[in-house]
């Protein structure tokens, strides 16, 4: 995008202030539902880590080994998820 085009768009930005304000107000009205969803996701992630840890314990690993393996596994899964996300864009 050329500088002139950017300047032209910025000069029109003032016209969109009411639209942006309404969009922000609408998003804020869903704050409780979004918070509940984020909590649900975070609890789900924590529970999966607990399940992974317990799996290692049940299969004969010490607590220290299970903790290290859990951290490595979740780190590896996060790496895979992030790489797949960036490739899908």
Describe the secondary structure blueprint for this structure.
Layout: H1 3-12, H2 17-29, H3 31-58, H4 63-88
Helix pairs in contact: 3-4
Key terms for this structure?
single chain, 89 residues, mainly alpha, 4 helices
Concise description?
This protein has 89 residues and is mainly alpha-helical. It is built from 4 helices and no strands.
Describe this protein's structure.
Helix 3 packs across helix 4 (63-88). By secondary structure, the protein is mostly helical. The longest helix is centred in the middle third of the chain and has 28 residues, at 31-58. The chain is elongated. The protein has 4 helices and no strands. The model has no long low-confidence stretch (mean pLDDT 87).
Shape: elongated
Distance between the termini: 21 Å
Q: How many distinct domains?
A: 1
Main β sheet profile: none
